[in-house]
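Side project, low priority. Logging it here so it doesn't get lost.
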Amino acid sequence: MSDYLGYNGISAFVGSSKTWAGGLQTGLNLQVGARDFDANFPLMTAPRADQFDAVGFTLSHTGLSFRGFSPSLSCTVTYNGSNVALYLFRTLACQIAFNRTF
């Protein structure tokens, strides 16, 4: 592995969820962090350094089901900042899952 791909990182995560009367379930989570890379990035005079933030939510309702499976929607927005332009990005990722309680 190339030395410039190794890093030390730190992150903090906090989340909360609530079940509302009637079966609605919601969740919110936040994450912040940083990565300091070990060696100079190719063609640069300094190691790569990233900072990232993410916020996400989850939404489901136990009253909605199909053959015992309840849908759940979750989305997360992530921003990655970096001193290497290639690694500056913002993403939105969503997924639908089908859950069943046994």
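Brief comment: The longest strand covers residues 24-40.
Revisit when time allows.
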